[in-house]
Design brief:
Helix content is 40%, strand content 13%. By secondary structure, the protein is an alpha/beta fold. Strands 1, 2, 3, 4, 5, 6, 7, 8, 9 and 10 form a ten-stranded mixed β-sheet that branches. Strand 3 and strand 4 form a beta hairpin. Helix 1 packs across helix 15. 47% of the residues are buried. The C terminus is likely disordered.
């Protein structure tokens, strides 16, 4: 039973995943105290989840150490490590947007993002050892790692991946896969939140295309894990299907701020697709259960189990308590769109890369994951993949992949 981890996006909210991974490392140690390698040989990440995914994949030979490093990173994070927060950097970005909106005809270079994320680019280039990912794949400690991003140039949703053995690349309507040697540029592209961070140029099919956040138009986030042979999938960072900001009785009903509108846009980008994908998988599972004799083994269709571990508390309420932790420059910029008030806390939470907020999310992710301890222990115990490699599906075989008839 090959296990997979799918790490969703969400900007600073991805600190929640580090706490969940800490719990998974402890449960793995309980099930098999002698095990050092990762119990989840398939790792898929999108947006900020792509950074977490690459980090633990680079320590697939010592999962506990990799998780410890990731927890330490999030526990001490600050916004200035991700984007420029100094007056000069923030003012320059703001001025470019103001000029583009007021005298766009005279602006020779359009603004590329509201924030300059060059600190993140430097952090990824020097903070992650991508050669360790290749070594983990060669040693079979890891089976596959994928990073998803959207091409603004062509509109295609791309899954860039590295694997321990040849895997048939897939191509579907407006989404496809490409086997590459992953690097910091893929993580930077996948985590480029639209409008907030600039797009990243990547080579594709002999030309350069510009890529942004992989959560955009990600209609089948579980697809890569299924293509890589996973039969059980743990999703970290999925949101429960509830309104992001419930309206209290008697609350003021004034015109929404740009931040309130933006938080709904962010919710559709980061949160909506995973719930629909899980529903499709459950629908196909029921079909396979009721028609077992009509499903040919060689078809590639199979039963897939999914466990989504979601925040049990409303993140915008946690974020509202920490808005003042943001640098004054960032609060000033967010104030222009109403993002520095409680009503805009959900929007601001995606940029709240501050240790106090991240630590609360870490603890929440840890508790929420331990709430599933019994099921997770059983899954980890059943995943005897050490030294065992699943055969790839037959060429052109249809795959049970999140609801499409053939993927």
């Amino acid at each position: 039973m090959r296990l997979a981890l799918v790490l969703m996006g969400g900007g600073a909210r991805a600190a929640y995943q580090a706490g969940a991974l800490k719990a998974l490392a402890e449960l793995t140690r309980e099930v098999d105290p002698d095990r050092r390698t990762i119990a989840f040989p398939v790792v898929c990440g999108t947006s900020a989840g792509a950074i977490n995914a690459a980090s633990i994949a680079s320590h697939a030979d010592d999962f506990a150490e990799g998780v410890e490093r990731l927890v330490d990173f999030w526990s001490h994070i600050s916004a200035r490590q991700v984007y420029r927060t100094d007056w000069r950097g923030v003012a320059a970005a703001g001025a470019r947007w103001l000029a583009a909106m007021s005298i766009g005809w005279a602006v020779h270079q359009a603004p590329r993002g509201l924030f300059d994320n060059s600190p993140l680019a430097e952090l990824l280039a020097h903070g992650l050892d991508f050669s360790r990912i290749g070594a983990a794949l060669e040693s079979r400690a890891l089976h596959a790692l994928s990073i998803s991003a959207l091409s603004y140039s062509s509109g295609r949703h791309l899954t860039f991946y590295q694997a321990a053995e040849p895997i048939q690349q897939w191509r579907r309507a407006q989404r496809s896969a490409a086997m590459v040697k992953l690097g910091p540029e893929h993580l930077l592209a996948s985590s480029a939140i639209p409008f907030l961070f600039p797009a990243v140029p990547l080579p594709l099919d002999g030309r350069i295309e510009y890529f942004g956040d992989g959560s955009i138009r990600q209609i089948a986030p579980l697809s890569p894990a299924i293509h890589f042979g996973a039969e059980r999938i743990i999703v970290l960072g999925a949101a429960a299907p509830r309104p992001e900001v419930p309206v209290a009785p008697g609350a003021a009903t004034g015109y929404p701020t740009l931040a309130q509108i933006g938080q709904q846009v962010m919710a559709s980008v980061f949160l909506d697709s995973i719930g629909a994908d899980i529903e499709r998988i459950e629908h196909i599972n029921r079909m396979i259960l009721h028609l077992p004799h009509q499903i040919e083994p060689a078809s590639g269709w199979r039963h897939i189990e999914v466990l989504a571990i979601a925040p049990s508390e409303r993140i915008e309420l946690l974020a509202a308590r920490h808005l003042k932790r943001l640098p004054l420059t960032v609060r000033g910029l967010l104030g222009a769109v109403g993002g520095n008030r409680a009503a805009g806390a959900s929007f601001a939470s995606y940029l709240l890369f501050e240790a106090e907020f991240a630590s609360e999310l870490l603890e929440l992710g840890y508790r929420d994951t331990l709430a599933h301890s019994e099921q997770l222990r059983a899954w980890i115990a059943a995943a005897n993949h050490r030294g065992v490699r699943a055969s790839p599906p037959p060429a052109n075989a249809p795959m049970h992949e999140s609801g499409d008839a053939a993927r």
